[in-house]
């Protein structure tokens, strides 16, 4: 039997449905309009350069609009605010307006200043809000809502935190099964998170917080907020989001599109050198050494060593042999270095000096009194064009690419010894590598450093671009010729060539058209971004920070991480240490304190491990209990016991996700014994090392061989802390040896 309050609720759902359906109708209208306009712009051809460029802008704009309208389809409207003044706003993923009523807002974009009370208003500080309503929708259907009446009498003075916003909806969200893809939190952003998301654009903001406090979520919503609030500034230069590995980037990849933002470049540091994929692996000690800041000097040394000054170089020229002694070479080198230009650009000054020296020798031998200025100019020109002379200059001051410089360095113990006077022999040995070996992520900051010091030698790139442009024009000309031939019969028909010439056709079909700032940025090493967000920032080495800082000269950055979770031995142990070389103390620390992922039962176990990293560190407070105690199981052989343990966990989590987190060296062996296991996050069961599990979360986690994880690295305790805090519901620890003392709280299951 339905009660009067059930009836009221149903009536409310019905009226909300009416409103939400009206909003979807409006969205459909907008979609249709943009689609028509896009089709119109694509049909247009010809015109002046300016007309073409305006048309391209329209095409890009309408395509973006269409992508945005599709992206916000799910959960378009998720909230409502009722004010004491009887005003009422609906809050959603984008703003929608009523064109017939002077653009009155129908739906408020969550990022608009007027939407802020939805995240900040509390019973103690209601900001004029009487009621906050969270709407739950499935596709276009309203399925329920939760109301909070912001009444001062409902304030609980015993609560120390400022309280949760939309608690029922929040708990439903954090309890939901995980999908292998991070979701957005736009409907349930909490006050401490909202303040960080809306921090001003300029300067460096550090977001420090324990596991599960929403750092990644906050960082991504901040990107969306900044793009909305500073669209003009940021759309041009773009926003870069840096993550620790490609698994993580795939995991977070859908969040910004679901917020209607597609123009953000997601990248690892290892992917920041265009044209090169750094997939090589190397020992952790080698990567850590390459990450040290002294490597910047090593690169500089390596370049100087290539500016050689041997005792004597003989240059055959015509019937004679010209000589360059060390004094002449050093003088030319000094001249070139004094230009303070990068190596490849300073080469021109070096070559000019060398040609001058050789020219005076050649002229002296021929007898200066016999030659006039024109003869001397001829000799200079011949010297410049002479293959032997060029070869001599190449040897003394070679044009270098970053790749060639590093490859030559790693593969030559002699070169390495000269470039690394401050490294020990053991350290130097870590850098030795044969030619042709794959580039590793730790090489990328060194290549970037080298590229800065070498300067772009873009002669080859320019020649290639020109060749491609010519080919495109030839191709376009061919197309036009064919069209003309076909239409030849009827002179009244407008020829394709009347509308567009080959050059323009080629230009319109060129690869650069309609590219977003993010796409252009991805292809250009020297691109600088309007804002850079660094996630899991504690993992970055000092050399990686140099690369990132170069990409953001304005130092408008959001740095997100947890010093207690640092696993990389090149990683950070304090934010001050990381940032002060670039911005001194001009950075702002913000903190997140509530854990939305890990239930309190699991967090209690993780807290013991955290205390072993540093007793001063405070674990975040879990937002909920799960009612399930974490357990440990001692088994004679993990490989044999694991399949059954995995099957039991899978049946406990229904269609949720399970991760088996193991020491890196056991990943391959254990992945092969777990049925259906993979490293693909879409699979139900994944087997991962800790480094690859960073930033991810699963309904259930089995941590295997905790002693192995602790022993695997000097930062083993941080790694174990990361592994334990990946679970949203259930945790089991499986071990063969004694359970490490830090885990003694676990009950054996
Ligand atoms: N306000 C919120 N509403 C709903 N869910 C939230 C909220 N804040 C965080 N979460 C959820 O909590 C989980 C953890 O968030 P997130 O991955 O951003 O944490 P993190 O601080 O980056 O963690 P870690 O340091 O362990 O990588 C995610 O599932 C996220 O969606």
Automatic annotation (TrEMBL):
TM helices/strands, residue ranges: none
Listed PROSITE patterns: UVRD_HELICASE_ATP_BIND (PS51198)
Signal peptide location: none
Residues annotated to bind ATP: 209-216
GO cellular component term of the entry, any: cytosol
Molecular-function GO terms, alphabetical: 3'-5' DNA helicase activity; ATP binding; DNA binding; hydrolase activity
Domain of life: Bacteria
Biological process (GO), any one: recombinational repair
Cited InterPro entries: DNA_helicase_UvrD/REP (IPR000212), P-loop_NTPase (IPR027417), UvrD-like_ATP-bd (IPR014016)
Record keyword Ligase present: no
Keyword terms, alphabetized: ATP-binding, Helicase, Hydrolase, Nucleotide-binding
Keyword Nucleotide-binding found: yes
Domain UvrD-like helicase ATP-binding: 188-599
Pfam entry (one): AAA_19
Name listed for the protein in its UniProt record: Superfamily I DNA and RNA helicase-like protein
Originating organism: Saccharothrix espanaensis (strain ATCC 51144 / DSM 44229 / JCM 9112 / NBRC 15066 / NRRL 15764)
Source lineage: Bacteria, Bacillati, Actinomycetota, Actinomycetes, Pseudonocardiales
